[in-house]
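Support request, please re-run this one:
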Amino acid sequence: MPRLGDALVAEVCGTFLLVLFGTGVVATAVLTGAQVGLWQVAAVWGFGVTIAIAATASVSGAHLNPAVTLAMATFRSGTFPPARALPYIGAQLLGAVLAGCVVFAVFSPFLDRFERAHQIVRGEAGSEASAMVFGEYFPNPAVFPESTREDGADRDLVSPLRAAGVEAFGTAVLVFVIFALTDRCRVPVAGSMASLLIGFTVAVLISLFAPVTQAGWNPARDFGPRLVAFAAGWGEVAIPGPHNGFWVYILGPLAGGLAGGAVYDVTLGRTGTVEG
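Re-run finished. Output below.
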């Protein structure tokens, strides 16, 4: 097992890469129109996840997600000591904040231009249309722009409870797949192939559920850049957000990660081992 310090550096670096690629592609899609359609955004997200895992898995196991860390500490305590969970989560949050800072620094002029063009006042109701570059909102402001208006017909299209359920379900699927691809008691998948399949799972989930919640699946990915948005002028639009809903992207994935790990262990995890 690698030293904790080395593992934490890897989690910072890996989460930084994951969030940089992910929020970066959202920024280019929202602010410049460089991406054509949801699948392009989802594909870049997926490849970003793949790259981040491949770069750090040999050092820290590439959790890069508090929901994964919590599930590993709960169901894989033999290989991942629970005492490492909080340091891992802290490292992930740091990496996500740093990535959010880079995205803000690079795209700040484009954010200003976007807000002027759409008559958005940062920090006021409706400014989640630009804040979505960092944190996530339900329903997706890019798909349902009316949802950003106080009197918009789509404002209440997705309730906080429904959004939390979607975030929990998507994270459960993701953690189930991660457990399946990393289960040493079953047919192992080569490391590079496992990282690609995990990334592709994220891309598929985004393509399905991003219109509803922007498809977070990762508390660090949402909360780190959301902190940057809060400090950069979005204020209460960032935290606590419309419907006071920022908790959706923390509790939903954490609960879903536990559910996905539990379901794997009582289904495929009980099917036996590979005979050599």
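The mean pLDDT is 94. Residues 136 and 255 are 18 Å apart (CA to CA).
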